[in-house]
TrEMBL record:
UniProt record, GO biological process: regulation of cell shape
Protein's name according to its UniProt entry: Putative gluconeogenesis factor
A GO CC term attached to the entry: cytoplasm
Naturally occurring in which organism (per UniProt): Corynebacterium choanae
Superkingdom assignment: Bacteria
Length: 343
């Protein structure tokens, strides 16, 4: 059975009309593909804007615009599953090769940058590309200005107790040290108003998976976004990564991912923390994860989300499995904190 055929058989909860997905990069891409598979009438992708590498970094430095790369990927993930939608997805993801001025740039990044220049508005530019791609919903930046990520990192000196400051998303994501805390520059930036409204109006809000310190936690460093998460009536779900990433979360367990989120956003309360079963094979580990989830006011949900490829080293979420998990978790509603659910 093809992936598309599987998607058509997925069950959409009757009350699930609006979903807001927070994140960035490949983790957000897989989440959006999962929500698209559920045929949700309206999907909001709310995307981090701190990338400073590659094509995105060049555009933010040369034009002063928000980095478009993660926004482009979200548009690609939500492109309509039609001949025209697939063509536009392929086009905006196409990256120029060679050694000239365009080398490394993707068509979608340049298209967004040009539209921002013409229209004078990032959200209007994203909406226009979304229309071309047949997106059912809206892709929004977390903030309307480019942000920087700054991290306290240990292990860069002979004395492991010494903390050094590392600045920039690429530098934080690839540091050989251990990230202890991250901040945004500027501190407490103004959010995109439409992103705040999308969270407040959603039936379901997802946070993660993705690069924990550079794509997921940054949303929780914007006070207005945390306020919207606290005020929304939506079911709020945190999806933990399948495994630690080299660099920023090297050596992290699923439990530590949850602890780091709670430390950075002590006021945050969510309904469910979803962890892949492979990350917690024993009842002993279930107990630790359940207590970590309780720090966010959440219950723990264990389910199978890993892509099947015949290799035990596959660490990518399967959109169809993720879609089923999200639908079933939404139907659980706001469960009693600390309760272990297994899907």
């Amino acid at each position: 059975m093809t992936s598309t055929a599987c998607e058509r058989q997925l069950h959409l909860p009757a009350a699930l009309d609006r979903v807001a997905c927070l994140g960035g990069g490949h983790g957000l891409f897989q989440t959006l593909r999962a929500v698209r598979a559920l045929q949700v009438p309206f999907i909001h992708a709310i995307v981090t804007v701190a990338d400073d590498g590659g094509s995105s970094g060049r555009i933010r430095r040369e034009l002063g615009q928000i980095p478009p790369g993660d926004l482009r990927m979200a548009l690609a993930a939500l492109s309509a599953d039609t001949e025209q939608g697939n063509l536009w997805e392929t086009l905006i993801q196409h990256r120029f090769g060679g050694n000239g001025a365009l080398a490394g740039h993707s068509v979608g990044n340049l298209l967004l940058a040009g539209l921002v220049d013409v229209l004078g508005d990032e959200v209007a530019a994203l909406d226009e590309v979304g229309r071309l791609c047949g997106v059912r919903g809206q892709v929004l930046p977390m903030a309307n200005e480019p942000l920087e990520i700054e991290a306290d990192v240990s292990g860069l000196d002979d004395d492991p107790r010494v903390m050094r400051t590392v600045r920039g998303q690429v530098a934080v994501a690839t540091t050989p040290g251990g990230v202890r805390r991250v901040r945004l520059v500027p501190h407490a930036p103004q959010p995109c108003p439409a992103a705040v409204d999308a969270i407040r109006q959603a039936d379901l809000v997802t946070l993660g998976p993705g690069s924990w310190f550079t794509s997921v936690i940054p949303h929780l460093l914007v006070p207005a976004i945390v306020d919207a998460l606290r005020e929304t009536a939506a079911v709020k779900v945190v999806m933990v990564n399948l495994t630690a990433e080299p660099g920023e979360t090297a050596g992290f367990s699923a439990e530590r991912h949850i602890h780091m989120m709670a430390q950075h956003a002590p006021r945050l309360r969510v309904d469910h923390v979803v962890v892949d079963r492979s990350a917690a094979p024993s009842s002993y580990e279930h107990g630790h994860l359940r207590r970590a989830a309780a720090a966010l006011g959440a219950d723990l949900v264990l389910c199978d989300m890993r892509e099947d490829s015949g290799s035990p080293q596959t660490y990518r979420h399967d959109p169809v499995k993720l879609a089923r998990a999200l639908a079933q978790t939404f139907e659980l509603g706001a469960g009693e904190a600390g309760a272990l659910q297994s899907l």
